[in-house]
Design goal:
The protein has helices spanning 6-19, 40-53, 57-60, 67-79, 82-97, 160-166, and strands at 104-113, 122-123, 131-139, 145-152, 179-182. It is of the alpha+beta class and 195 residues long. It has two domains: 6-24 and 35-85; 100-182, no CATH class. Strands 1, 2, 3, 4 and 5 form a five-stranded mixed sheet that branches.
Length: 195
């Protein structure tokens, strides 16, 4: 079952493949025991499934492509700047055909687990000190993600505001007056102390 209809995936693939660096051919192993490189199209379709379904690489991996190959190729494409270029093209196309609503921008953050650690992971204040990261995301008035930054889970939201707004610079010129809506923690008033 495809994650997206072909009329959406095909134009994205056509633009994406033009961005890909030329694959470096591997020398064949003298014993002939190395597998051939998984086609970029297969990896691309698997990564689209991960994004659309929101599941782990292990759930998408099968006999055509392993989770390790998905991560390795993703990291290779990120290092070459392909993913940033694709993100920019997708936002530009969305803005052209549907329209980003940038007069109102909402910013919120969430904490996610990071069991394998990583340079951004820190102790999580909501998960008994286990490793976690905080994602601070800006969205337009319709909820379309515009920019996300990561930080250790134990960082307060307020210092992330400036960095999150800086992530919007990639969009180009913003409207003259932008209202930024910040998420606030819901608090329940405490009953007065009896005494």
């Amino acid at each position: 079952m495809p994650a997206l209809p072909a009329y959406i995936v095909e134009p994205i693939w056509d633009q994406f493949v033009a961005l890909l660096p030329a694959a470096v051919p591997r020398a064949d192993h003298p014993l002939g025991c190395h597998r051939s490189r998984i086609p970029d199209r297969t990896v691309f379709e698997k990564l689209v499934q991960v994004l659309v379904f929101g599941c782990a690489y292990e759930r998408i991996a099968d006999e055509t492509c392993s989770a390790t190959t998905l991560r390795r190729r993703r990291d290779e494409w990120i290092a070459h700047g392909v993913m940033n270029d694709l993100r920019g093209m997708a936002l530009e196309a969305y803005d052209k055909f549907i329209g980003l609503r940038l007069a109102d921008v909402a910013i919120d953050s969430c904490i996610t687990k990071a069991p394998c650690g990583g340079e951004k992971a820190g102790s999580s204040p909501v998960d008994r000190g286990k490793r976690g990261i905080k994602l601070s995301t800006a969205v337009d008035a319709e909820g379309i993600p515009l920019g996300t930054i990561t930080a250790p889970a134990n960082r307060h939201d307020s210092p992330l505001l400036g960095e999150t707004l800086d992530a919007l610079e990639k969009l180009g010129p913003m409207p003259e007056r932008v209202r930024v809506h910040l998420a606030t923690a819901a608090t329940t008033p405490r009953p007065p102390a009896s005494g």
